[in-house]
TrEMBL record:
Name under which the protein is recorded: DUF2470 domain-containing protein
Domain of life, source organism: Bacteria
Domain DUF2470: residue ranges: 142-218
The organism's taxonomic lineage, starting at the top: Bacteria, Bacillati, Actinomycetota, Actinomycetes, Kitasatosporales
SUPFAM superfamilies recorded: FMN-binding split barrel
Species this chain originates from: Streptomyces stephensoniae
Record InterPro entries: DUF2470, Haem_oxidase_HugZ-like_sf
Amino acid sequence: MRPFSARATQPTRAERVRSILVVAHSMTVVSDGVQTEVRRLDGTGAMGHIHLHAPTEGGHAPAGERVPARLEFTDIAPTPVRDRLRARVTVTGLLAAPYSTDTESSTCMEFGQAVLEDAEGRSFITLEELERTETDPVAACEAGMLTHLVDDHSELVPLLLRLVRPHPDRGMVRAVPLAMDRYGVTLRLEYPRSHRDVRLPFPKPVTEIDQAGPQIHALLAAARRVSHRNGLLA
């Protein structure tokens, strides 16, 4: 008999790190005491500029050809929520030297460790976990989809609140979409002196970006059904 496994409703820590690396528009490279801001990732993300590999790959390079380095990334919410910093990711290892931000080809980095820091704490991610993880199909489009929802369809956010359990209390100031991934949407509920985040899982995880729209509509349809059952106007 196959063991029972609950359907995933949110990304793993490795999935979050991979998504941040894939869609990063900038990063900070700290090496040999020098901090360099790299802001020209040209939509290819960090993994298009830095090739992460295990220490045993490619033989043993002379010590003078690699230097200890730290890559720093920040994950910022694309919507105007309170406290827009969603996470920090730090990747450490040995970077091929000399490193130049002007190179058009990727630079090799011998992987040391990756650290994810967010509201849930600190997690360490291995290279094997990153390599086993598929890129979230929603990651590249998340910012555009969330800003479109806020700017052009803001009336739908109160409708989604019908799905929140327990219901937000009367002290809530506003609700703003915070994040979207293959598993669902996260809303940030803001109060005068605090906030809390709630997830609304999709009926099915998204495997192709074309499925994201129908899954959002499925959430809205569920919210309308709740409204009608309660005798409320959507």
